[in-house]
Specification:
Elements (H helix, E strand, L loop, with lengths): L20 H14 L5 E5 L2 E6 L11 H4 L4 E5 L5 E5 L11 E2 H8 L1 H14 L19
Antiparallel strand pairs: 1-2, 2-3, 3-4, 4-5
Helix pairs in contact: 3-4
The protein binds zinc ion.
The site of zinc ion (ZN) has 10 residues, from loops.
Length: 141
């Protein structure tokens, strides 16, 4: 996937829609997390996001219908990114809202490292962006 990275600004699904790296990762990630239950597109004030079963607390509830509940959402934040929010907040990890990069790092650190490299390569890290130039341990990736 890393080698398939398309530089920011050059990726267009068609002439009217445009997806940046974060949007591509978010779309793939919610499909993966949703699994058989799926992720549902939903309109939010800043655009289209998704609702899906919470990857952190769905395993912690007993009843099957509760496991399948689409209680988590990636909500567009008006800045070409998303905020992760779980309405159930049953685990420590989903008890706070998270910006997409933090959510990705919490959920899948390996995929986050790849995402970070894609962002670095596209020049969308550092000042003015929602992700720092180096990883969160202060090391260059
Ligand atoms: Zn949750």
């Amino acid at each position: 996937m890393y080698n398939m990275c398309i530089p920011f600004g050059k990726y267009r699904e068609n002439t009217r829609s445009f997806m940046n790296i974060t949007q591509r990762y978010a779309k793939d990630l919610v499909q993966y997390i949703g699994g058989n239950i799926g992720a549902k597109e939903k309109h939010f004030p800043y655009g289209i996001g998704w609702i899906f079963p919470c990857p952190f607390c769905s395993a912690l509830v007993n009843k099957e219908y509760k496991k399948k509940a689409q209680c988590a959402a990636l909500i567009p934040n008006g800045n070409y990114s998303y905020v992760f929010r779980c309405s159930r907040k049953k685990s420590g990890q989903c008890s706070v809202n998270m910006l997409f990069p933090i959510f990705l790092k919490t959920y899948n650190p390996k995929l986050f490292a790849q995402y970070h490299r894609d962002r670095e390569e596209a020049g969308s890290t550092g000042k003015g962006h929602d992700i720092c130039k180096y990883n969160y341990f202060g090391e260059k990736l």
